[in-house]
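Collaborator request, handled under Task 6.
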Amino acid sequence: MEQERKKDRFNVSEDKSLRAILSKFGSLLGLLLLCVILTFASDQFLTFKNIMNIANQSALNSLISVGMLLTILTAGIDLSVGSVLALSICVMAVAITKWHLNAMMAIILCLVVGSFLGFINGILLTKLKLPHPFISTLAMKNVAAGLALIVTGASPISGFSKSVQFLGSEKIGLIPVSFILVIAVYAIFHIFLNRTAQGRYIYAVGGNPEAAKLSGVNVSKTLVLVYSLSGFMAALCGIVLVGRVNAAFPLAGLNYDADAIAACIIGGASFMGGSGTVWGTLIGSMIMAVLRNGLNLLGVPADVQTVAIGLVIIGAVYVDVLRTQAQKKAKTNSNSNTNTNTPVNVKA
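Structure tokens returned to the collaborator:
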């Protein structure tokens, strides 16, 4: 009997360790598997030129996704990132072409506009006591999209200087500056989330906002900071986009919110909040870029690619649901085992 119990304990611990490994490295294993499949499917995939192309392609989604990650960590979401990006770069473009502002000041203005729009998202959520950021960010999505059309007269603005295009078009050696920027930004956010008190507050608010509040965390201030950073990252992504295409247009960033959400969830973040990592999000973004690149190399039509990306997003959300259910089940089993092993004192 005792041997059977030991065997059961061994199997449970082995199952937990395997589950922990898959939970921690599942997205990385998925990326490697996808790369192996595409390597055999196309002889053009595993070349240095194509790898650098993927790195360049992934930069936009990677930058906007790290801002989205912060909102998802707090059990929220930001549907306005695409429109915030569009309005920020349109204001920058108007500042350069019509107000004759120098490039550096215009870039700073772009980042300020994005941060301010994110700040408004946070204020709407916290001060109006809205039940979910879905409402405030959806409203901001429409407002910012409309303002972008008004500011530009619904026309694209092009013809920027090399300094404006630098982040999106230049290379250092053979590596795109945009991807170097991604690595630098992700390193900064990794330190912020894991090495600072404010970063730990973000996880705490997402895990249990009431407990965080009782522990002395200013939940409203944390949420405003998170949405401000999301707006900042949307604007930074917009600057890279302008550098890449040498144009600012009001319909930029149209589906960027969906891609960013998918990257976060594929990378291990949960809609329930409190879980997710910066590097996991980067891997999720790389999976999206590799998939798109591979489908292009295989000659898959653009409309079919859209369907495939949609299915990937559905799959990612389903995996998140399964992961959340497994965590709840494990927690319930752990609590029941604790209660079973607790001795009961019976008074005579």
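The cover message to the collaborator said: "The mean pLDDT is 87. The CA atoms of residues 78 and 137 lie 6 Å apart. Please let us know whether this matches your experimental observations."
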